[in-house]
Structures are given as structure tokens and as C-alpha cells.
Design goal:
Elements (H helix, E strand, L loop, with lengths): L21 E3 L10 H10 L10 H11 L6 E4 L1 H12 L5 E5 L4 H8 L4 E5 L19 E5 L11 H5 L7 E5 L21 E6 L1 H4 L7 E4 L2 H10 L7 H10 L2 H26 L7 E2 L7 E5 L3 H10 L2 E5 L10 E5 L3 H18 L2
Parallel strand pairs: 1-11, 3-4, 3-5, 5-6, 6-7
Antiparallel strand pairs: 2-8, 7-8, 9-10, 10-12, 11-12
């Protein structure tokens, strides 16, 4: 099994927030679904007496990515996809590239699989080095862009992980937050590649659970066979249809452009705190930024006293308590946070 030490791999950002705190710990980008999506969800409620049907959602996802419907599995959020992988596949040597989202670890561990961690180097900007993955690994999981590092790996580096007999799982939960999705593999029919996508982050529907998997029909069918009946609710299926249409896709790219600008403002502000020991990891491209600060646990707790919740980093393999993940927010919120962080790290050095 993976050597996780005493890390709480089930810890997520929602556990870092509390009433009265400004939430910089959760990566959901909207406070609530947009009006057009709420209307679609409301319109679906009259169908609740019938069992859910994801056929239209499957077709919509296929059209969105230029795939065939048999290459699509609609899921109850991206997290369900990791559970299905662990149940359906029988890898002999699973490798997870860390630091990254920990649910794949949890799912594989609970299914009884042996898991090895390949830890990327902070001094190398957490860049993916395919040669570090053992040649005999028959299941490799990597995020792109990666949570929590915010690093966007080149598609070519992901492709270098592919080889006969290996399944490569690419967690693209935040791919639509990068303008133009330049490194996505969602439209490629690459042998052995499974791409997992989420709709909850961009559209403010984490409580609804909506995601999907893209891959070869044979692999997708294996996952489908492990999926409980009707796991995707009728409103979730309606959300998938609405959020993968042309209008929504165009709006998602507009939101990504805004998030890109807001992230750059956050990174620029953090750079001004470098003399106080604040360091930004890698080259952030997602709607969150990973930073390291001296005595990070004291800094994080002091920030809570000042009204800001950030995501602790020590539950991610490869990171310590000196790391924290900061969600990208609007400029006013960012300015307030940067002021609080400046006071906090300055106080921490006294």
C-alpha cells in the first residue's frame, strides 16, 4: 500500500472553512449556479418520479468533445469515477503522481490495490517527469492541471506515459478553467487513456455531483459495469446536458479568461511578499495557487483569526504543513487576503 504516514487523505477544502470566514479553501468558482442553469434544473424536477436516464447527457458530452457515445460514461461527479476505476480494474502496480487530489489514493486503497507514489519535485516546479514512473506500472493517475500544485503539464508529457498494457488516468477536473484548454486529451482517442472531467467547479454545483469519463469503449464499458444503477440523478443529468452545450462551453471559456486574470493578480501580489518568505509553486495555471511559507501551520491559523480560510497542504503526499493552497477569487477579495497574509507573515517573523 501507499505509505501515507498519518496523512488524512480524505481531508478536503470544505473541512477548512467555517462560518464567518472568507472561503479561499474550496475551488468551486461560483457561489451558486447561474440563472440559466437553475432554470434547467428546475425544469427537470417534474421528471423525478421516473428513474434517471443519462442517454441525452451522454450524447451531449460526446458532441462536446467530438467522441462517440460509447466513449462516454456520465458519473456522479469526478469522485465517483475514481471509485469505479478501483472497482473495475485489476492493476498489478498502480502509481499515483503526487502531489495531487487524494481521492484516487483512497479509492484504490479501499479496493485493496497496492499503490506507489511518484512525488514530483518542488524545486523543479512540480513538473511531470514521465521517466520517473516505473516501467512496469499498469495504472498511472495524474492531474492536469494538477490540484493542488496548479501546474499544467504538456499534453506531450502525458502521452509519454502511455504504453501497451497500461491505463493512464488524467484528472482534468480543472481543464475548463484554463483558457482554450491547450493541453487537454479529452478529444483524443488514445489507447489506454481515460480522461475524467468535472462540471461542479466551474458551474457552482458541487452539491449536485456531475462529471464524466472519456476513453476507449472497452475501458468505459468496464467502468459502466461497476457503476451502481441510477447513480446519476435526473437533475445531475440535466446539468450535464446544459453545461456541455455550445453556449455553456463558450461561457466557460469566458469565465476561464476572467479567472486567469484574477490568478495573475494574486500571483503578482504573492510575489511582493517573497522577502517575507512567501514562495509560489511552479507556474500556476488553474484557479488556485500553491504557496509555501515558513511556519505554515502558524500562518494558516493566524489567517483564520483574521477571517480567511485557506486549504492546508500537509494532507497531500509530498507536501508539508508549510504549504497552503489559495483559491482564486475576485480582485477585492484577493487584495484583502494579501493584506492579511502580509500582516501574518510579518508577525510570524517577529
Amino acid at each position: 500500500m501507499a505509505d501515507t504516514g498519518d496523512r488524512d487523505l480524505r481531508h478536503h477544502g470544505d473541512q477548512d472553512i467555517a462560518d464567518g470566514l472568507v472561503d479561499l479553501a474550496v475551488n468551486v468558482r461560483l457561489g451558486e449556479p447561474p440563472a440559466w442553469l437553475r432554470e434547467e434544473l428546475t425544469a427537470s424536477l417534474h421528471r423525478l418520479a421516473a428513474y434517471p436516464d443519462v442517454s441525452e447527457a451522454t450524447k451531449a458530452v460526446a458532441a462536446r468533445h467530438g467522441r462517440s457515445p460509447d466513449e462516454v460514461l456520465v458519473t456522479s461527479g469526478a469522485a465517483e469515477a475514481f471509485t469505479l476505476l478501483a472497482r473495475a480494474l485489476r492493476p498489478r502496480h498502480s502509481v499515483i503522481v503526487h502531489p495531487q487530489f487524494t481521492e484516487p489514493d483512497v479509492a484504490l486503497h479501499e479496493a485493496g490495490h497496492c499503490v506507489e507514489h511518484v512525488i514530483l519535485d518542488a524545486h523543479d516546479g512540480f513538473r511531470l517527469r514521465p521517466e520517473k514512473v516505473p516501467a512496469d506500472a499498469d495504472l498511472v493517475v495524474v492531474g492536469n492541471p494538477t490540484n493542488p500544485t496548479s501546474v499544467l503539464h504538456p499534453a506531450g508529457a502525458i502521452r509519454r506515459l502511455c504504453r501497451p498494457g497500461r491505463v493512464v488516468v488524467v484528472d482534468e477536473a480543472f481543464a475548463d478553467a484554463v483558457p482554450g484548454e491547450p493541453e487537454t486529451l479529452s478529444g483524443e482517442r488514445a489507447p489506454g487513456v481515460l480522461v475524467i472531467r468535472s462540471l461542479t467547479k466551474t458551474w457552482g454545483i458541487a452539491g449536485l455531483r456531475a462529471g464524466y469519463v472519456l476513453g476507449e469503449p472497452e475501458l468505459v464499458e468496464q467502468l459502466r459495469a461497476a457503476q451502481p444503477p441510477w447513480s446519476v440523478s435526473t437533475p445531475a443529468a440535466a446539468a450535464v446536458v446544459a453545461c456541455t452545450g455550445p453556449a455553456a462551453t463558450a461561457q466557460a471559456d469566458e469565465l476561464a479568461v476572467t479567472a486567469d486574470a484574477d490568478r495573475k493578480a494574486l500571483v503578482e501580489g504573492l510575489a511582493r511578499l517573497e522577502p517575507l518568505g512567501v514562495r509560489v509553486a511552479g507556474q500556476p495555471r488553474a484557479p488556485f495557487v500553491l504557496v509555501t511559507v515558513p511556519e505554515g501551520e502558524r500562518v494558516r491559523l493566524r489567517l483564520r483569526e483574521l477571517g480567511y480560510a485557506v486549504r492546508r497542504g500537509d494532507t497531500f503526499p509530498g507536501l508539508s504543513s508549510d504549504w497552503m493552497r489559495i483559491a482564486v477569487r475576485d480582485p477585492a477579495t484577493t487584495r484583502g487576503f494579501l493584506d492579511a497574509l502580509a500582516v501574518t507573515v510579518g508577525w510570524n517573523r517577529m
